[in-house]
Amino acid sequence: MSSTVVKDVEKVNSIVWFRNDLRAVDHSGLSHAIDNSKNVIGVYCFNPHQFKLNNLGFPKTDSFRANFLIESVKCLKEELKKINISLIIGVDKPESLISSIILKKNIGRVYLQDEWTEEEIKEEDFLKKIDIDIFKFNDQFLYHPQDVDINNISNVFTNFRKYCEKKLHVRQSFVLNTKMNEDNLIEDEFLLPTLKDLGLNNFNFDHRSAFPFKGGYKQGLDRLNYYLWESKKVSFYKKTRNGLIGKDYSSKLSSWLSNGSLSPRMIYHSIKDYEKKIQKNQSTYWMIFELIWRDFFKYISIINGNKIFKVGGILDKNYIWIHETKLFEKWINGKTPEPFVNANMLELKYTGWMSNRGRQNVASYLSKENNIDWRWGAKYFESKLIDYDVHSNYGNWMYVSGVGNDPRDRKFNIKFQAERYDPNNKFQNLWLQEKLSLF
Ligand SMILES: Cc1cc2nc3c(=O)[nH]c(=O)nc-3n(C[C@H](O)[C@H](O)[C@H](O)COP(=O)(O)OP(=O)(O)OC[C@H]3O[C@@H](n4cnc5c(N)ncnc54)[C@H](O)[C@@H]3O)c2cc1C
Question: Per-residue DSSP letters for 100-125?
């Protein structure tokens, strides 16, 4: 990991290149840039590569997440303006857009969140060819990589969790208490793209959606406040988290976490505060427990590199997978012989959302009942999910498909799961019987 903390650097002009860190709080890169630069410019690139059709024929990022992303970037622009920083937005490859800004604005330094997966590394490779200082930061973790002994991380979640809980602490989150002078703002000629600009279709909001939220730091913070302080739903999380219908069975914070509108430390410390002031119980603990899963998959991907994208997964398993397009399409379109799978897949298709219980079942069905290459399923999730996150998605897919971190390699009994979690067919009726109903 290349996390950098630098002191007393000479003041130059800097870029903060935002990627999956779309917030202006609890952001070490931004804070360091403000304290140590003459001028600071923010940049966000809608990289056209992210919206192109993949080899399976669907967009790498489809309309639901793209829309959430546009809303998130809009909010970031507004938040940055409050601290006198302009956000340059482009629908362009970072290499073209950022290189030209570096030249035009005499930039000496670029700040960005540290990423380690292949695509992200390729995307930033051009920076190495330019005479510029690069500073990277790791605020996307609950447990900071500098505090973690990466060489001794277990492949088993329980061991990892116990290690974190016993040996580590979660660093404080922080708000920025500095800002740039007003003359740092530059002329604003950069517009937010529309879905059409990204080559994607518009969509109508489906009122059945369990995720009726908008993107951006402010919306994420509202949701956090609602789930903890206003509704106190977090106090019942352990009992409700396997739910399927409605916005409150789980926190729904994953989408803001995935694009960095919220940081996991902010959520962690809010829960700790809630525990002090309102109530501490198994449910409040369980929300933190789930956030540790998120970190776990990040560390698994650091340790295993590109193996997380290989069919044998991190276990190098030699299973036989099939590549049957017709069967795969039945899964996508909710036309399998399993109504519970179908209901979940239609929810994903129409809303970009699926519950954790649903995700486990449909993934197990595709990979362990149909034996279809699990990476096809992961790619479809990548396209549709509003909360897609490379580490959580590929980590969970490997886990469920028997090529990852599940020591017991379980297969879900779909009928039993449907009876247990949807005993009155309410969820299945919602998606299988109601016509697509829009407003
Ligand atoms: C096949 C499959 C694919 C998945 N793909 C993604 C993905 O692309 N992005 C994503 O964020 N999550 C993914 N998950 C994990 C999980 O389903 C979602 O994080 C969760 O449903 C989000 O809802 P929530 O925010 O209400 O979660 P809550 O139940 O409220 O949990 C709180 C937070 O803990 C974290 N979390 C919870 N469960 C998991 C988990 N199993 N793995 C990692 N982090 C977890 C999330 O950040 C979540 O926001 C996947 C799970 C499966 C089985």
Answer: HHHHHTTEEEEEEE---SHHHHHHHG
